[in-house]
Amino acid sequence: xxxxxxxxxxxxxxKGKSKTPRKPxxxxxxxxxxxxxxxxxxxxxxxxxxxxxxxxxxxxxxENALDSAExxxxxxxxxxxxxxxxxxxxxxxxxxxxxxxxxxxxxxxFETAKAREKRLAKEARVLExxxxxxxxxxxxxxxxxxxxxxxxxxxxxxxxxKDNGRGMPHDDIPNMFGRVLSGTKYGLKQTRGKFGLGAKMxxxxxxxxxxxxxxxxxxxxxxNYTSFCRLDIDIHKNVPHIHMHEKRENKERxxxxxxxxxxxxxxxxxxxxxxxxxxxxxxxxxxxxxxFQFVSDSPEKNVTIRFTRRTDIMPSVPLETKYHPSAVDIxxxxxxxxxxSKQTLLQFLQHEFVNIGKSxxxxxxxxxxxxxxxxxxxxxxxxxxxxxxHQLFRQAKFDDPSGDILSPAGEYNxxxxxxxxxxxxxxxxxxxxxxxxxxxxFIVEAGVSVGGKDVKQGxxxxxxxxxxxxxxxxxxxxxxxxxxxxxxxxxxKINQTQDKIGVxxxxxxxxxxxxxTGKEYIGDDISEIAxxxxxxxxxxxxxxxxx
Length: 547
Ligand SMILES: Nc1ncnc2c1ncn2[C@@H]1O[C@H](COP(=O)(O)OP(=O)(O)OP(=O)(O)O)[C@@H](O)[C@H]1O
What we know:
Blueprint: H1 10-16, H2 34-40, H3 50-71, E1 77-85, H4 87-93, H5 113-135, H6 143-146, E2 155-163, H7 173-178, H8 198-209, E3 214-219, E4 225-234, E5 239-249, E6 256-265, H9 267-284, E7 289-295, E8 303-307, H10 330-339, H11 345-352, H12 358-368, H13 383-395, H14 411-422, E9 426-431, E10 435-437, E11 440-450, E12 458-465, E13 468-470, H15 478-486, E14 500-509, H16 527-546
Parallel strand pairs: 1-7, 12-14
Antiparallel strand pairs: 1-2, 2-6, 3-4, 3-6, 4-5, 7-8, 9-11, 10-11, 11-14, 12-13
Helix pairs in contact: 3-8, 3-9, 9-14, 11-12, 15-16
Bound molecules: adenosine-5'-triphosphate (ATP).
Protein backbone atom coordinates (compact mmCIF):
# COMPACT_ATOMS: atom_id res chain seq x y z
CA UNK A 1 0.00 0.00 0.00
CA UNK A 2 1.26 3.46 -0.87
CA UNK A 3 1.54 5.97 1.89
CA UNK A 4 1.03 9.74 1.43
CA UNK A 5 4.55 10.33 2.70
CA UNK A 6 6.27 8.47 -0.11
CA UNK A 7 6.10 11.40 -2.58
CA UNK A 8 7.81 13.85 -0.19
CA UNK A 9 11.53 14.28 0.09
CA UNK A 10 12.85 13.57 3.60
CA UNK A 11 13.52 17.31 4.18
CA UNK A 12 10.00 18.31 3.17
CA UNK A 13 8.56 15.55 5.27
CA UNK A 14 10.59 16.72 8.28
CA LYS A 15 9.48 20.37 7.90
CA GLY A 16 5.89 19.56 7.10
CA LYS A 17 5.53 17.21 10.06
CA SER A 18 7.01 19.52 12.67
CA LYS A 19 3.60 20.06 14.35
CA THR A 20 2.38 16.46 14.38
CA PRO A 21 2.93 14.57 17.63
CA ARG A 22 6.09 12.48 17.72
CA LYS A 23 5.53 8.83 16.91
CA PRO A 24 6.19 6.71 20.01
CA UNK A 25 9.28 4.56 19.73
CA UNK A 26 8.60 0.87 19.31
CA UNK A 27 8.50 -0.64 22.78
CA UNK A 28 11.55 -2.71 23.51
CA UNK A 29 11.11 -5.98 25.32
CA UNK A 30 13.14 -6.03 28.52
CA UNK A 31 13.52 -8.42 31.45
CA UNK A 32 14.00 -7.72 35.11
CA UNK A 33 15.56 -9.96 37.69
CA UNK A 34 13.59 -10.51 40.92
CA UNK A 35 16.22 -8.42 42.74
CA UNK A 36 15.69 -5.54 40.30
CA UNK A 37 11.95 -5.81 40.65
CA UNK A 38 12.07 -5.61 44.43
CA UNK A 39 14.66 -2.82 44.33
CA UNK A 40 12.25 -0.84 42.11
CA UNK A 41 9.21 -1.70 44.24
CA UNK A 42 10.70 -1.95 47.70
CA UNK A 43 7.59 -0.48 49.31
CA UNK A 44 5.63 -3.68 48.67
CA UNK A 45 8.01 -5.45 51.03
CA UNK A 46 7.68 -2.80 53.76
CA UNK A 47 10.69 -0.70 52.72
CA UNK A 48 8.88 2.56 52.01
CA UNK A 49 11.06 5.37 53.36
CA UNK A 50 14.29 5.48 55.43
CA UNK A 51 12.43 5.32 58.76
CA UNK A 52 10.24 2.41 57.71
CA UNK A 53 13.30 0.70 56.19
CA UNK A 54 15.01 0.83 59.59
CA UNK A 55 11.91 -0.63 61.23
CA UNK A 56 11.48 -3.40 58.65
CA UNK A 57 15.18 -4.29 58.76
CA UNK A 58 14.97 -4.77 62.54
CA UNK A 59 11.80 -6.82 62.09
CA UNK A 60 13.20 -9.11 59.44
CA UNK A 61 16.37 -9.79 61.43
CA UNK A 62 14.52 -10.42 64.72
CA GLU A 63 12.02 -12.75 63.06
CA ASN A 64 14.79 -14.75 61.39
CA ALA A 65 16.56 -15.00 64.75
CA LEU A 66 13.44 -16.37 66.47
CA ASP A 67 12.63 -18.81 63.65
CA SER A 68 16.17 -20.08 63.85
CA ALA A 69 16.33 -20.60 67.64
CA GLU A 70 12.88 -22.19 67.76
CA UNK A 71 13.71 -24.57 64.92
CA UNK A 72 16.20 -26.29 67.27
CA UNK A 73 13.95 -25.89 70.35
CA UNK A 74 16.41 -23.47 71.91
CA UNK A 75 14.96 -20.79 74.21
CA UNK A 76 15.73 -17.71 72.10
CA UNK A 77 18.25 -15.11 73.20
CA UNK A 78 18.24 -12.21 70.76
CA UNK A 79 20.37 -9.09 70.95
CA UNK A 80 19.58 -6.25 68.66
CA UNK A 81 21.60 -3.05 68.45
CA UNK A 82 21.01 0.04 66.36
CA UNK A 83 24.08 2.23 66.34
CA UNK A 84 23.77 5.76 65.02
CA UNK A 85 26.59 6.67 62.67
CA UNK A 86 27.32 10.34 62.20
CA UNK A 87 28.08 11.68 58.73
CA UNK A 88 31.83 12.02 59.34
CA UNK A 89 32.09 8.51 60.69
CA UNK A 90 30.06 7.18 57.79
CA UNK A 91 32.22 9.03 55.29
CA UNK A 92 35.38 7.65 56.86
CA UNK A 93 33.85 4.14 56.78
CA UNK A 94 33.42 4.37 53.04
CA UNK A 95 36.67 6.27 52.52
CA UNK A 96 35.07 9.54 51.50
CA UNK A 97 36.69 12.80 52.59
CA UNK A 98 34.42 15.15 54.57
CA UNK A 99 33.42 18.30 52.72
CA UNK A 100 32.20 21.52 54.25
CA UNK A 101 29.47 23.31 52.31
CA UNK A 102 30.81 26.16 50.24
CA UNK A 103 27.84 27.37 48.27
CA UNK A 104 24.91 27.18 50.71
CA UNK A 105 22.40 28.30 48.08
CA UNK A 106 23.01 25.07 46.17
CA UNK A 107 21.33 23.00 48.85
CA UNK A 108 17.73 22.00 49.13
CA UNK A 109 17.49 23.08 52.76
CA PHE A 110 18.88 26.56 52.04
CA GLU A 111 16.67 29.38 53.30
CA THR A 112 17.05 33.10 52.93
CA ALA A 113 16.73 35.06 56.18
CA LYS A 114 13.30 36.20 55.04
CA ALA A 115 12.10 32.70 54.24
CA ARG A 116 13.34 31.48 57.61
CA GLU A 117 11.43 34.23 59.39
CA LYS A 118 8.28 33.32 57.47
CA ARG A 119 8.63 29.60 58.23
CA LEU A 120 9.18 30.18 61.95
CA ALA A 121 6.12 32.42 62.11
CA LYS A 122 4.05 29.76 60.35
CA GLU A 123 5.29 27.06 62.69
CA ALA A 124 4.45 29.17 65.70
CA ARG A 125 0.91 29.64 64.34
CA VAL A 126 0.52 25.87 63.81
CA LEU A 127 1.73 25.16 67.35
CA GLU A 128 -0.72 27.69 68.74
CA UNK A 129 -3.64 26.07 66.91
CA UNK A 130 -2.53 22.64 68.06
CA UNK A 131 -2.28 23.77 71.67
CA UNK A 132 -5.84 25.15 71.41
CA UNK A 133 -7.12 21.90 69.90
CA UNK A 134 -5.36 19.83 72.53
CA UNK A 135 -6.96 21.94 75.26
CA UNK A 136 -10.36 21.22 73.67
CA UNK A 137 -9.58 17.50 73.73
CA UNK A 138 -9.29 17.28 69.96
CA UNK A 139 -6.82 14.95 68.30
CA UNK A 140 -3.65 16.78 67.23
CA UNK A 141 -1.04 15.76 64.72
CA UNK A 142 2.52 15.22 65.86
CA UNK A 143 4.27 18.49 64.88
CA UNK A 144 7.31 16.48 63.76
CA UNK A 145 5.12 14.59 61.33
CA UNK A 146 3.73 17.75 59.77
CA UNK A 147 7.14 19.18 59.01
CA UNK A 148 8.43 18.45 55.55
CA UNK A 149 11.45 16.20 55.47
CA UNK A 150 12.83 18.10 52.50
CA UNK A 151 16.52 18.71 52.48
CA UNK A 152 17.08 16.50 55.47
CA UNK A 153 20.54 15.07 55.73
CA UNK A 154 20.67 11.28 55.59
CA UNK A 155 21.12 9.45 58.90
CA UNK A 156 22.99 6.18 58.96
CA UNK A 157 22.71 3.25 61.34
CA UNK A 158 24.53 0.00 61.89
CA UNK A 159 21.95 -2.67 62.76
CA UNK A 160 23.27 -5.82 64.42
CA UNK A 161 21.20 -8.84 65.38
CA LYS A 162 22.69 -11.80 67.24
CA ASP A 163 20.89 -15.02 68.06
CA ASN A 164 21.53 -18.44 69.57
CA GLY A 165 19.79 -20.35 66.79
CA ARG A 166 20.62 -23.06 64.35
CA GLY A 167 23.16 -21.03 62.34
CA MET A 168 23.61 -21.61 58.62
CA PRO A 169 25.60 -24.11 56.56
CA HIS A 170 28.80 -22.38 55.41
CA ASP A 171 28.16 -22.88 51.70
CA ASP A 172 24.51 -21.76 51.81
CA ILE A 173 25.14 -18.33 53.36
CA PRO A 174 25.80 -16.43 50.10
CA ASN A 175 22.54 -17.60 48.51
CA MET A 176 20.53 -17.14 51.70
CA PHE A 177 21.50 -13.45 51.81
CA GLY A 178 22.42 -12.60 48.24
CA ARG A 179 19.73 -14.15 46.06
CA VAL A 180 16.21 -12.75 46.19
CA LEU A 181 13.56 -15.44 46.66
CA SER A 182 15.72 -18.06 48.26
CA GLY A 183 15.09 -19.49 51.69
CA THR A 184 14.50 -22.60 53.73
CA LYS A 185 10.93 -21.76 54.73
CA TYR A 186 9.02 -22.49 51.53
CA GLY A 187 7.72 -25.81 52.84
CA LEU A 188 4.21 -26.12 54.21
CA LYS A 189 4.89 -25.16 57.79
CA GLN A 190 4.06 -22.36 60.21
CA THR A 191 7.05 -20.00 60.26
CA ARG A 192 7.46 -16.26 60.65
CA GLY A 193 9.43 -16.08 57.43
CA LYS A 194 7.91 -17.34 54.22
CA PHE A 195 8.93 -15.48 51.08
CA GLY A 196 12.73 -15.80 51.10
CA LEU A 197 12.92 -12.04 50.75
CA GLY A 198 13.33 -10.12 54.04
CA ALA A 199 17.09 -10.30 54.63
CA LYS A 200 17.73 -9.62 50.93
CA MET A 201 15.51 -6.54 51.02
CA UNK A 202 17.58 -5.20 53.93
CA UNK A 203 20.69 -5.83 51.84
CA UNK A 204 19.18 -4.19 48.74
CA UNK A 205 18.29 -1.16 50.88
CA UNK A 206 21.83 -0.99 52.25
CA UNK A 207 23.13 -1.17 48.70
CA UNK A 208 20.76 1.59 47.64
CA UNK A 209 21.36 3.88 50.60
CA UNK A 210 24.95 3.33 51.77
CA UNK A 211 26.57 1.05 49.19
CA UNK A 212 27.92 -1.09 52.03
CA UNK A 213 27.81 -4.91 52.14
CA UNK A 214 26.19 -7.10 54.79
CA UNK A 215 28.29 -9.15 57.22
CA UNK A 216 27.20 -12.54 58.48
CA UNK A 217 28.89 -14.59 61.18
CA UNK A 218 27.37 -17.97 61.85
CA UNK A 219 28.07 -21.32 63.36
CA UNK A 220 26.02 -24.48 63.60
CA UNK A 221 25.78 -26.75 66.62
CA UNK A 222 29.12 -28.34 67.64
CA UNK A 223 30.92 -26.90 64.61
CA ASN A 224 34.56 -26.10 65.39
CA TYR A 225 34.53 -23.10 63.07
CA THR A 226 32.40 -20.04 62.49
CA SER A 227 31.61 -18.89 59.00
CA PHE A 228 32.22 -15.27 58.16
CA CYS A 229 30.78 -13.82 55.00
CA ARG A 230 30.77 -10.28 53.68
CA LEU A 231 28.68 -9.89 50.58
CA ASP A 232 26.39 -7.73 48.56
CA ILE A 233 24.03 -8.57 45.76
CA ASP A 234 24.34 -8.25 42.01
CA ILE A 235 20.93 -6.73 41.45
CA HIS A 236 20.91 -7.28 37.70
CA LYS A 237 21.77 -10.98 37.88
CA ASN A 238 20.17 -11.67 41.28
CA VAL A 239 23.25 -13.46 42.54
CA PRO A 240 25.44 -12.89 45.60
CA HIS A 241 28.57 -10.84 45.13
CA ILE A 242 30.99 -12.23 47.72
CA HIS A 243 33.67 -9.97 49.19
CA MET A 244 34.94 -12.44 51.78
CA HIS A 245 33.81 -15.92 52.81
CA GLU A 246 35.99 -17.81 55.24
CA LYS A 247 36.02 -20.20 58.17
CA ARG A 248 37.32 -18.98 61.51
CA GLU A 249 38.09 -20.70 64.76
CA ASN A 250 35.13 -21.31 67.10
CA LYS A 251 36.77 -22.01 70.44
CA GLU A 252 33.63 -21.43 72.50
CA ARG A 253 31.59 -23.74 70.29
CA UNK A 254 29.07 -20.92 69.88
CA UNK A 255 26.11 -21.58 67.66
CA UNK A 256 23.81 -19.02 66.13
CA UNK A 257 24.10 -16.09 63.77
CA UNK A 258 25.10 -12.47 63.91
CA UNK A 259 24.03 -10.23 61.06
CA UNK A 260 25.35 -6.71 60.65
CA UNK A 261 24.20 -4.17 58.12
CA UNK A 262 24.64 -0.42 57.63
CA UNK A 263 21.64 1.41 56.23
CA UNK A 264 20.10 4.82 55.99
CA UNK A 265 17.23 5.21 58.43
CA UNK A 266 15.35 7.60 60.62
CA UNK A 267 15.37 6.74 64.31
CA UNK A 268 13.59 9.93 65.30
CA UNK A 269 10.39 9.18 63.40
CA UNK A 270 10.39 5.40 63.83
CA UNK A 271 11.72 5.10 67.38
CA UNK A 272 8.29 4.54 68.86
CA UNK A 273 7.27 1.99 66.19
CA UNK A 274 10.46 0.00 66.75
CA UNK A 275 10.01 0.02 70.53
CA UNK A 276 6.35 -0.96 70.19
CA UNK A 277 7.36 -3.80 67.95
CA UNK A 278 9.91 -5.06 70.47
CA UNK A 279 7.41 -4.75 73.30
CA UNK A 280 4.72 -6.63 71.42
CA UNK A 281 7.22 -9.27 70.38
CA UNK A 282 8.00 -9.72 74.07
CA UNK A 283 4.25 -10.15 74.75
CA UNK A 284 3.84 -12.96 72.24
CA UNK A 285 7.25 -14.52 72.93
CA UNK A 286 7.60 -14.48 76.75
CA UNK A 287 9.96 -17.48 76.59
CA UNK A 288 12.54 -15.40 74.68
CA UNK A 289 15.06 -12.97 76.04
CA UNK A 290 15.61 -9.78 74.10
CA UNK A 291 18.20 -7.10 74.61
CA PHE A 292 17.44 -4.01 72.58
CA GLN A 293 19.96 -1.17 72.41
CA PHE A 294 20.08 2.13 70.62
CA VAL A 295 23.55 3.65 70.75
CA SER A 296 24.22 7.23 69.80
CA ASP A 297 27.14 9.65 69.94
CA SER A 298 24.94 11.71 72.26
CA PRO A 299 24.66 9.40 75.29
CA GLU A 300 21.40 11.04 76.44
CA LYS A 301 19.71 9.53 73.39
CA ASN A 302 20.84 5.99 74.24
CA VAL A 303 18.19 3.37 74.91
CA THR A 304 18.69 -0.03 76.54
CA ILE A 305 15.71 -2.29 77.13
CA ARG A 306 15.94 -5.82 78.38
CA PHE A 307 12.85 -7.94 77.89
CA THR A 308 13.50 -10.78 80.28
CA ARG A 309 12.34 -14.35 79.83
CA ARG A 310 9.34 -15.16 81.99
CA THR A 311 8.85 -18.80 81.22
CA ASP A 312 10.84 -21.76 79.97
CA ILE A 313 7.78 -23.25 78.34
CA MET A 314 8.07 -22.90 74.61
CA PRO A 315 5.27 -23.67 72.20
CA SER A 316 5.87 -26.96 70.41
CA VAL A 317 7.91 -26.78 67.20
CA PRO A 318 5.56 -26.45 64.20
CA LEU A 319 5.70 -29.46 61.92
CA GLU A 320 6.01 -29.57 58.17
CA THR A 321 2.91 -31.01 56.54
CA LYS A 322 1.71 -32.11 53.11
CA TYR A 323 -0.83 -30.28 50.99
CA HIS A 324 -4.52 -30.74 51.56
CA PRO A 325 -6.28 -31.66 48.27
CA SER A 326 -8.43 -28.54 48.46
CA ALA A 327 -5.36 -26.27 48.77
CA VAL A 328 -3.74 -27.14 45.44
CA ASP A 329 -4.10 -25.73 41.95
CA ILE A 330 -3.07 -27.22 38.61
CA UNK A 331 0.40 -25.72 38.76
CA UNK A 332 1.03 -27.11 42.21
CA UNK A 333 -0.21 -30.59 41.24
CA UNK A 334 2.24 -30.49 38.30
CA UNK A 335 5.07 -29.46 40.61
CA UNK A 336 4.25 -32.23 43.08
CA UNK A 337 4.23 -34.75 40.22
CA UNK A 338 7.67 -33.55 39.07
CA UNK A 339 9.08 -33.75 42.59
CA UNK A 340 7.48 -36.99 43.80
CA SER A 341 9.52 -40.15 44.25
CA LYS A 342 6.34 -42.24 43.90
CA GLN A 343 5.72 -44.20 40.73
CA THR A 344 2.00 -44.82 40.50
CA LEU A 345 -1.00 -42.53 40.70
CA LEU A 346 -2.28 -44.46 43.73
CA GLN A 347 0.99 -43.99 45.65
CA PHE A 348 1.13 -40.33 44.61
CA LEU A 349 -2.33 -39.54 45.97
CA GLN A 350 -1.70 -41.51 49.14
CA HIS A 351 1.69 -40.03 49.97
CA GLU A 352 1.76 -36.47 48.66
CA PHE A 353 -1.47 -35.22 50.23
CA VAL A 354 -2.94 -35.21 53.71
CA ASN A 355 -6.21 -36.99 54.41
CA ILE A 356 -6.15 -39.40 51.46
CA GLY A 357 -5.86 -43.01 52.64
CA LYS A 358 -5.43 -46.01 50.31
CA SER A 359 -9.09 -46.93 49.89
CA UNK A 360 -10.05 -43.26 49.53
CA UNK A 361 -7.40 -42.87 46.81
CA UNK A 362 -8.77 -45.92 44.99
CA UNK A 363 -12.29 -44.51 45.08
CA UNK A 364 -11.04 -41.14 43.82
CA UNK A 365 -9.20 -42.81 40.91
CA UNK A 366 -12.36 -44.77 40.05
CA UNK A 367 -14.21 -41.45 39.94
CA UNK A 368 -11.65 -39.78 37.66
CA UNK A 369 -12.79 -41.73 34.61
CA UNK A 370 -11.99 -44.77 32.44
CA UNK A 371 -8.52 -43.59 31.37
CA UNK A 372 -7.23 -43.54 34.95
CA UNK A 373 -6.01 -46.54 36.92
CA UNK A 374 -4.29 -46.95 40.31
CA UNK A 375 -1.16 -48.45 38.75
CA UNK A 376 -0.72 -45.93 35.96
CA UNK A 377 2.54 -43.96 36.02
CA UNK A 378 1.96 -40.62 37.68
CA UNK A 379 4.71 -39.01 35.62
CA UNK A 380 2.90 -39.89 32.39
CA UNK A 381 -0.35 -38.08 33.23
CA UNK A 382 -1.40 -35.76 30.40
CA UNK A 383 -2.21 -32.07 31.02
CA UNK A 384 -5.91 -32.90 30.54
CA UNK A 385 -5.72 -35.69 33.11
CA UNK A 386 -4.12 -33.30 35.62
CA UNK A 387 -6.99 -30.86 35.08
CA UNK A 388 -9.42 -33.71 35.79
CA UNK A 389 -7.65 -34.49 39.09
CA HIS A 390 -7.84 -30.83 40.03
CA GLN A 391 -11.56 -30.70 39.20
CA LEU A 392 -12.20 -33.72 41.40
CA PHE A 393 -10.13 -32.28 44.26
CA ARG A 394 -12.33 -29.19 44.20
CA GLN A 395 -15.60 -31.10 44.18
CA ALA A 396 -14.90 -34.07 46.44
CA LYS A 397 -15.29 -34.07 50.21
CA PHE A 398 -12.14 -34.40 52.32
CA ASP A 399 -11.59 -34.33 56.06
CA ASP A 400 -10.23 -31.01 57.25
CA PRO A 401 -6.47 -30.77 57.75
CA SER A 402 -5.40 -31.20 61.35
CA GLY A 403 -4.24 -28.29 63.45
CA ASP A 404 -1.72 -30.49 65.31
CA ILE A 405 1.09 -29.31 63.09
CA LEU A 406 0.53 -25.69 64.17
CA SER A 407 2.20 -24.00 67.08
CA PRO A 408 -0.04 -21.36 68.65
CA ALA A 409 1.39 -19.15 71.37
CA GLY A 410 -0.78 -20.96 73.91
CA GLU A 411 -3.16 -19.39 76.40
CA TYR A 412 -0.57 -19.54 79.16
CA ASN A 413 2.06 -17.68 77.15
CA UNK A 414 -0.40 -15.15 75.80
CA UNK A 415 -1.71 -14.35 79.27
CA UNK A 416 1.79 -14.22 80.72
CA UNK A 417 2.95 -11.88 77.98
CA UNK A 418 -0.01 -9.53 78.48
CA UNK A 419 0.49 -9.43 82.25
CA UNK A 420 4.24 -8.96 81.95
CA UNK A 421 4.04 -6.06 79.54
CA UNK A 422 0.76 -4.30 80.39
CA UNK A 423 0.08 -5.13 84.05
CA UNK A 424 -3.71 -5.06 83.52
CA UNK A 425 -6.30 -5.21 86.29
CA UNK A 426 -7.94 -8.14 84.60
CA UNK A 427 -7.09 -10.43 81.72
CA UNK A 428 -8.72 -13.45 80.13
CA UNK A 429 -7.56 -15.52 77.22
CA UNK A 430 -9.21 -18.08 75.03
CA UNK A 431 -7.83 -20.60 72.53
CA UNK A 432 -9.92 -21.84 69.65
CA UNK A 433 -9.75 -25.20 67.95
CA UNK A 434 -8.28 -25.55 64.49
CA UNK A 435 -10.35 -24.32 61.56
CA UNK A 436 -9.72 -24.30 57.85
CA UNK A 437 -9.32 -21.70 55.16
CA UNK A 438 -8.67 -22.83 51.57
CA UNK A 439 -7.26 -26.13 52.78
CA UNK A 440 -4.94 -24.56 55.34
CA UNK A 441 -5.55 -25.06 59.06
CA PHE A 442 -5.52 -22.01 61.32
CA ILE A 443 -5.94 -21.43 65.04
CA VAL A 444 -7.10 -18.19 66.62
CA GLU A 445 -6.32 -17.24 70.21
CA ALA A 446 -7.66 -14.12 71.84
CA GLY A 447 -7.04 -12.21 75.01
CA VAL A 448 -8.94 -9.29 76.49
CA SER A 449 -7.50 -7.11 79.25
CA VAL A 450 -8.92 -4.21 81.20
CA GLY A 451 -6.80 -1.49 82.80
CA GLY A 452 -3.01 -1.55 82.97
CA LYS A 453 0.18 0.43 82.72
CA ASP A 454 0.80 2.66 79.68
CA VAL A 455 -2.53 1.62 78.19
CA LYS A 456 -4.60 4.31 76.46
CA GLN A 457 -8.31 4.73 77.10
CA GLY A 458 -10.46 2.96 74.54
CA UNK A 459 -9.63 -0.02 72.39
CA UNK A 460 -5.95 -1.00 72.16
CA UNK A 461 -5.70 -3.66 69.49
CA UNK A 462 -2.70 -5.98 69.38
CA UNK A 463 -2.46 -8.23 66.35
CA UNK A 464 -0.19 -11.20 65.83
CA UNK A 465 0.17 -13.50 62.84
CA UNK A 466 2.36 -16.58 63.13
CA UNK A 467 3.58 -14.89 66.30
CA UNK A 468 4.70 -11.72 64.50
CA UNK A 469 3.33 -8.41 65.86
CA UNK A 470 1.55 -6.45 63.12
CA UNK A 471 1.82 -2.70 63.59
CA UNK A 472 0.84 -1.14 60.28
CA UNK A 473 -2.38 -0.92 58.26
CA UNK A 474 -4.35 -1.36 61.47
CA UNK A 475 -7.56 0.08 60.05
CA UNK A 476 -7.95 -2.50 57.30
CA UNK A 477 -7.07 -5.53 59.42
CA UNK A 478 -9.62 -8.19 60.27
CA UNK A 479 -8.86 -7.98 64.01
CA UNK A 480 -9.27 -4.20 64.29
CA UNK A 481 -12.45 -4.23 62.26
CA UNK A 482 -13.90 -7.01 64.37
CA UNK A 483 -13.01 -5.28 67.64
CA UNK A 484 -14.37 -1.93 66.45
CA UNK A 485 -17.47 -2.95 64.57
CA UNK A 486 -18.60 -6.47 65.35
CA UNK A 487 -18.34 -6.70 69.11
CA UNK A 488 -21.06 -5.25 71.24
CA UNK A 489 -18.97 -3.97 74.12
CA UNK A 490 -22.00 -2.41 75.80
CA UNK A 491 -23.56 -5.81 76.27
CA UNK A 492 -20.54 -6.70 78.43
CA LYS A 493 -20.87 -3.39 80.31
CA ILE A 494 -17.56 -2.24 78.90
CA ASN A 495 -17.25 1.31 77.69
CA GLN A 496 -15.48 1.12 74.35
CA THR A 497 -14.17 4.69 74.53
CA GLN A 498 -13.60 5.26 78.25
CA ASP A 499 -12.24 1.95 79.58
CA LYS A 500 -8.66 0.88 78.98
CA ILE A 501 -9.27 -2.21 76.90
CA GLY A 502 -6.61 -4.43 75.42
CA VAL A 503 -7.66 -6.80 72.63
CA UNK A 504 -5.02 -9.36 71.66
CA UNK A 505 -5.60 -11.70 68.78
CA UNK A 506 -3.05 -14.20 67.56
CA UNK A 507 -3.58 -16.22 64.39
CA UNK A 508 -1.30 -19.06 63.34
CA UNK A 509 -1.53 -21.01 60.10
CA UNK A 510 0.48 -22.80 57.44
CA UNK A 511 -0.60 -19.92 55.22
CA UNK A 512 -1.41 -16.51 56.65
CA UNK A 513 -3.35 -14.63 53.98
CA UNK A 514 -1.33 -11.40 54.34
CA UNK A 515 -2.08 -8.57 52.01
CA UNK A 516 1.24 -7.98 50.22
CA THR A 517 4.73 -9.26 50.97
CA GLY A 518 5.25 -6.69 53.76
CA LYS A 519 3.28 -8.93 56.18
CA GLU A 520 1.51 -5.95 57.67
CA TYR A 521 -2.12 -6.95 57.86
CA ILE A 522 -4.68 -9.65 57.19
CA GLY A 523 -7.61 -8.45 55.13
CA ASP A 524 -11.16 -8.45 56.37
CA ASP A 525 -12.46 -10.38 53.37
CA ILE A 526 -11.96 -13.97 54.54
CA SER A 527 -15.16 -14.93 56.27
CA GLU A 528 -13.71 -18.02 58.00
CA ILE A 529 -11.05 -15.90 59.70
CA ALA A 530 -13.37 -12.97 60.44
CA UNK A 531 -15.94 -15.15 62.19
CA UNK A 532 -13.27 -17.05 64.16
CA UNK A 533 -11.78 -13.77 65.38
CA UNK A 534 -15.21 -12.55 66.48
CA UNK A 535 -16.05 -15.81 68.22
CA UNK A 536 -12.78 -16.01 70.11
CA UNK A 537 -12.81 -12.35 71.10
CA UNK A 538 -16.33 -12.71 72.49
CA UNK A 539 -15.28 -15.84 74.37
CA UNK A 540 -12.34 -14.00 75.92
CA UNK A 541 -14.55 -11.07 76.94
CA UNK A 542 -17.05 -13.46 78.54
CA UNK A 543 -14.26 -15.14 80.52
CA UNK A 544 -13.01 -11.72 81.57
CA UNK A 545 -16.50 -10.85 82.81
CA UNK A 546 -16.69 -14.04 84.85
CA UNK A 547 -13.38 -13.20 86.48
N1 LIG B 1 19.53 -15.61 61.85
C1 LIG B 1 19.42 -16.64 61.01
N2 LIG B 1 19.73 -17.89 61.43
C2 LIG B 1 19.63 -18.95 60.58
N3 LIG B 1 19.23 -18.85 59.30
C3 LIG B 1 18.92 -17.64 58.84
C4 LIG B 1 18.99 -16.47 59.66
N4 LIG B 1 18.63 -15.41 58.91
C5 LIG B 1 18.32 -15.89 57.69
N5 LIG B 1 18.48 -17.22 57.64
C6 LIG B 1 18.27 -18.10 56.47
O1 LIG B 1 18.20 -17.30 55.32
C7 LIG B 1 16.99 -17.55 54.61
C8 LIG B 1 16.53 -16.29 53.93
O2 LIG B 1 16.09 -15.32 54.88
P1 LIG B 1 15.08 -14.19 54.44
O3 LIG B 1 14.86 -13.28 55.59
O4 LIG B 1 15.57 -13.56 53.19
O5 LIG B 1 13.74 -14.97 54.04
P2 LIG B 1 12.76 -15.85 54.91
O6 LIG B 1 12.96 -15.59 56.36
O7 LIG B 1 12.90 -17.26 54.44
O8 LIG B 1 11.34 -15.33 54.41
P3 LIG B 1 10.69 -13.85 54.55
O9 LIG B 1 11.10 -13.08 53.38
O10 LIG B 1 9.22 -14.13 54.57
O11 LIG B 1 11.19 -13.28 55.85
C9 LIG B 1 16.01 -18.08 55.65
O12 LIG B 1 15.02 -18.88 55.04
C10 LIG B 1 16.94 -18.86 56.57
O13 LIG B 1 17.16 -20.16 56.07
